[in-house]
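Fold it.
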Amino acid sequence: MIIDIITLFPKMFKGPFSESLIFRAQKKGIVKIKIHNLRDWAKSKHNQVDDSPYGGGAGMVLKVDVIDRAVSAFKKKGTKIILLTPQGKKFDQKKAKKLAKNQHLILICGHYEGFDERIRKLVDEEISIGDYILTGGELPAMIIADAVVRLLPGVVGKNESLKHESFENNLLDYPVYTKPEIYKKWRVPEVLLSGNHKKIAEWRGKEAQKRTKTR
């Protein structure tokens, strides 16, 4: 998979993509994550990527021509282009699975007061990570990339573990424990110490349903 991220602040991505599973996935060649500075496609003297809105109003608006040139530089057959905006559909695990089936994603990080409405005509989908406002689309891009990349074959060591995570089968994950067996009088449930895998599986199923219902 290739993920192209178009942003005004490329340095923000150095930490999250140079650690842990995402870093190892890139090293293995499972995914290529490329960060692009939007200003590289500006044609004005001062590399201007935004301007004041027609009709007046506060803030600056990202320019459609600059975004179009940036997207056109990477777009190819089968590319899915995503605009990150609070007005998009809310991101969830189901969406992460769908995106993981694509070979090429372009993520456009929104910024400033907003973006020229015509930019919507350049994208396939608009995604939001929640009903709140951030300074830009950089953090959402990191979150989406992380959620998608870990679903790619070979990224998580034991792919079987992906089948038993929260949100699989519309359930939250069951409780898990490790040593010590007793801590401050808090005990590990006896069934987990029984060695009876059938009973353990039944207990985990019931606990997952209970947790989903209450939370």
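The first strand starts at residue 2 and ends at 7.
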